[in-house]
Amino acid sequence: AVLGPTHASTLGSISNLASSLLAMGKHGEAEKWQRHVLVTREVMLGKMHPETLQSVYSLALMLQETGRHQEAEPLLRRAAEGREEVLGLNHPDTLTAVSSLAVLLQATGQMDEAEGTHWRALTGRE
């Protein structure tokens, strides 16, 4: 291995592989690799590093896409709150996570919170 298993480029490649596996319908394998990237980034970079928060967000979307909303919700909240703290209230990545959380809340029938969260994303983008 030229770069090693914990190098940022290696982890990025693994995350891309996980996305491809998900698109191919290999949900279990995709989730395994995405969780591997998340855990490795947590250990190497810390729980609040932007790349770690991206892994949290990616795993949340993967779970949401496979209908596992209850597992995805706390991860989306973590991604949105973490990005808000690290990147700022109106950073595009923060607002993307907030918007994704709003969509999930709406899909799970949490309409009042979904509306407020949609407004939060919109206000940040205006």
What's the short story on this structure?
The protein is an all-alpha fold. It contains six helices and no strands.
Outline the fold blueprint:
Layout: H1 8-23, H2 27-45, H3 50-65, H4 69-87, H5 92-107, H6 111-125
Helix pairs in contact: 1-2, 2-3, 3-4, 4-5, 5-6
Gyration radius over CA? 15 Å
| Share of helix, binned | over 70%
Order of helices and strands: HHHHHH
At the third CATH level, what is the topology name?
Serine Threonine Protein Phosphatase 5, Tetratricopeptide repeat
Number of strands: 0
Per DSSP, what share of the residues sits in E-state strands of 2 or more residues? under 5%
* Poorly predicted sequence stretches spanning 5 or more consecutive residues: none
Number of helices: 6
Any idea of the CATH class? Mainly Alpha
Q: What class do helices, strands and sheet pairing give?
A: mainly alpha
Annotated CATH architecture: Alpha Horseshoe
Subcellular location: Cytoplasm
Keywords: Cytoplasm, Repeat, TPR repeat
GO molecular function: kinesin binding
Protein name: Kinesin light chain
Can you put this structure into words, describing what you see?
- GO terms for molecular function: kinesin binding.
- Its main location: cytoplasm.
- This is Kinesin light chain.
- The protein is mostly helical and 126 residues long.
- The protein has one domain: Serine Threonine Protein Phosphatase 5, Tetratricopeptide repeat, CATH 1.25.40.10.
- It contains six helices and no strands.
- The protein has helices at 8-23, 27-45, 50-65, 69-87, 92-107, 111-125.
- The longest helix has 19 residues, at 27-45.
- The chain is globular and about 50 Å long.
